[in-house]
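Lab notebook, bench 4. Still working through the backlog of constructs that have no structural model yet. Next entry is a single chain of 275 residues. Request: give me the structure tokens for it.
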Amino acid sequence: MNRTRLIFIGVIALALGALVSAAVYKNLQSRSAGAAQPGIEVVVAASDIAVGERIEEKSIRLARFPEGDLPPNAIRDKSRVIGRGAVLPMYRGEFVLPNKLAGENAGSGLPALIPPGMRAMSVRVNEVVAVAGFVQPGTRVDVLLTGNPSGGDEQQTTTVLKNVLVIATGQKLERSTAGEAQMAAVITLLVSPDDAQKLTLASTQGRIQLALRNPLDTNQEELAAVNSGALYKGMPKPVVATAPRPRVKHTEAPPAPQTFSVEVYRGDKKEEKTF
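Model written out:
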């Protein structure tokens, strides 16, 4: 009887042990499955990447994210990124997206920042022209020209280009992260081919001045040119000398000559002659 009881207790203990082991195994399996939650590997920046920098193997890495947390154009293959230039700054851990990269085979540096159909034009500036150094990469400016369009003494100022993007100051492709002024002798602007011709001609016709814009201000309103006479209130407008109109002489027609007639009689014939 005691033997039977011991066997019964042993069977119950084995059954309870099996149940406990199964529960523990199931719990551990669910935890490991949660830790290895399925996701998608995408390319992110392994370190800070500056504008114009050529992306190397060490600059990027693969990171796994849930599919619902990924941007629609996330890049999954490193080979699509390596060797391309950055057109926007990227920081460590940030997604590497196509709109932040130059086109394939476009290289790196300044040429990679020029979109198709656009041109990079450099102009020489000083502290005044460059708005005390606050014209930096990424800012937008208007280009003003002052000169003598008619070759006279009166100065005239006109806006040649509006809302132009600055892509470089000197050899720097990024603005100061602290927002400090950066002085440079040359500023490079991103312009269309037509505007490149205007800018080249303006640099030979007079003095160029840059006007810094708010990046949110995209107003393209046409402005009339301003003459120096418009700066002084009450100043009489210059009188433009006009050539005197030639007088037309009206000549009267000569009076008709006076005539007289003479009657001549020859026999019984009568003739009348007019003189």
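Notes after review: The radius of gyration is 45 Å. Strands lie at 40-45, 60-65, 119-124, 140-147, 156-169, 186-191, 207-213, 226-227, 261-266, 269-274. Flag for follow-up if needed.
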